[in-house]
Every structure is written in structure tokens, then in C-alpha cells.
Write a structure and sequence with these properties.
Elements (H helix, E strand, L loop, with lengths): L1 E3 L1 E6 L4 E9 L10 H10 L17 H4 L8 E2 L2 E5 L5 E4 L4 E2 L3 E3 L3
Parallel strand pairs: 1-8
Antiparallel strand pairs: 2-3, 3-5, 4-7, 5-6
This protein binds zinc ion.
């Protein structure tokens, strides 16, 4: 997929349509000590009682029963930087592409 380097879109700080530069946001690994994973560990871990139903935590890993990893393309997030106020916003648009190139618009 070809994406133009410059794009005119809404800036929440300027509250107007301004020119933005487009870059690809880096994917970051999820931290292990976040609130959600700690809550999951306490529900799942040996600290809890070893009997009874723990709801969704009683299930196998999601790759065992759902078609996780079936798709061959990745979704990409874009970082849009406003050229007026230099504020950056991340657009997590849901377009899939195998190959992505950011190019100058002629
Ligand atoms: Zn702006």
C-alpha cells in the first residue's frame, strides 16, 4: 500500500484542518507489570484457591480454540505530526497491508 508523506487532516490542538506529516508508529511489546496482567495473574496464579470455575481464566490459551495468527498481513498505526503546532497523534486505522511504503506526493 502506498501512503502519501503529507496529509491534510484534523488537528485536535489547532481544532482545524492542517497539514500533517505521516510516519509509521513503532509496535511496542506489552509490559508484564500492567494492571490487567497483574489482575490476570492473581486470578490465574497459585495464590487463588485451586478449585472452582475462574470464568474465562479456566479456558486454554486463546491459540488453542480460536484462529489466532491466521492472517498474513499486519495492521499499521500512523503517527501524524501537525506542521503548525508540532503535536503528534496516533491514528490506529484498520487497514491491512503486506507491504507499506510512505512516498512523496508529486
Ligand atoms: Zn496542530
Amino acid at each position: 500500500m502506498k501512503v502519501p508523506k503529507n496529509k491534510k487532516t484534523f488537528c485536535p490542538k489547532c481544532k482545524a484542518q492542517t497539514a500533517h506529516t505521516v510516519a509509521v508508529a513503532k509496535k511496542r511489546e506489552r509490559g508484564t507489570l500492567k494492571k490487567g496482567s497483574m489482575a490476570r495473574l492473581t486470578k490465574r496464579g497459585s495464590a487463588k484457591a485451586g478449585f472452582g470455575n475462574h470464568g474465562k481464566f479456566s479456558r486454554k490459551a486463546i491459540s488453542g480454540w480460536k484462529r489466532i495468527g491466521a492472517k498474513t498481513s499486519k495492521k499499521t498505526d500512523f503517527r501524524l505530526t501537525c506542521t503548525v503546532c508540532k503535536k503528534t497523534q496516533v491514528k490506529s486505522s484498520g487497514t491491512r497491508a503486506k507491504k507499506l511504503t510512505i512516498e512523496d506526493k508529486t
